[in-house]
């Protein structure tokens, strides 16, 4: 007997402005999926054949913030009308009959790029209003869902309701098989704290969440390009000791922190002896990727250096640089980092985050060790780590 749910459409969220690069990337990785409906920050794809293997389905791309199976769309004049239409969709009924939907993610596509005009990804008034209407119209036998922004446990089926326009919602579902899949819209529930000196705090916090960097409290990390210090603050809040390298000045909050050491020089001029105890390295430099990698290579390949892992931000001043990404990743691997992952974070701008470890086995350290940083505590089948600073 065939499954009642066999969709031919899928959806993906991406950064506002990254739709074309997402489509190009998926054309290489999954050529049977062809672009269909598209709006800034949201793209759907069609396959000639229906999806029969549902568990773990995703559109694998560094530019897909989250993805899932499409169940159609609804239009209406009010949130209440739209919510009622969601529950009446035959595809939603088929999904409920096929898989056990126990949660929902209600989110709005990004209306502008992160950081533009003060915008940051996450809950919006429109998504909150949509979720309230969805809750009010939900069938009595649908599992109770926690109110407000929340993180779904691992390995659960989730109903997605995406506010594409105020009068047009898209509906889908996905399986929470990864950390980003546990976050509504692929955006971790991180807010910029009052003490943060820049939005780089958000980027570094998300990088730590996504990568699950297996660092222990009290270990030393080198940050290349640290000014004004937002990312360093996130590392400090995670319990790490930070050596920041940048010829520019850092904020007073960093200068006064005894766990932070500022090397006010260019990377090429910094004494390598300062880094001998460092086990981790991060870099977010306002230069082209090749120059960032030059700086990183000059540190991690020095004799006596024992950097176990890295979080690198690769700026993309032109989207065409994406074509060089395989070469960038191969270069990182040539330094002895065999486990290399890449993702455009929700709080990134036109850039990518690369997480590099010596081996994939290092990822298990965080799950198994009892000395986990409290901000990124995680277990094998539970929720992703809590926000930094909690």
Classify the beta-strand content into a percent band: 15-25%
Structural class from helices and strands? alpha/beta
Please compute the radius of gyration using only Cα atoms.
22 Å
Instruction: Tell me which CATH architecture of the largest domain applies here.
Output: 2-Layer Sandwich
Stated plainly, the CATH topology of the largest domain is called: VC0802-like
Total DSSP helices: 10
H/E element order: EHEEEHHEHEEHEHEHEEHEHEEH
Mean pLDDT: 91
**Cα distance spanning the termini:** 49 Å
Number of domains: 2
User: How is the main sheet built?
Assistant: 7 strands, mixed
Structural notes for this entry:
The chain is α/β, with parallel strands linked by helices. It has two domains: 9-186, VC0802-like; 200-376, 3-Layer(aba) Sandwich (Rossmann fold), CATH 3.40.50. It is built from ten helices and 14 strands. The chain has helices spanning 19-29, 79-88, 90-98, 125-137, 200-211, 230-237, 252-255, 289-300, 325-333, 363-368, and strands spanning 9-13, 33-39, 42-47, 66-75, 101-108, 157-165, 168-175, 220-224, 241-245, 260-263, 280-284, 309-315, 339-343, 351-357. The strands form two sheets. The protein has a seven-stranded mixed beta sheet. A seven-stranded mixed beta sheet has the order 10-9-8-11-12-14-13, with helices on both faces. Strand 11, helix 8 (289-300) and strand 12 form a beta-alpha-beta unit. The longest helix is centred in the middle third of the chain and has 13 residues, at 125-137. It is elongated and about 65 Å long.
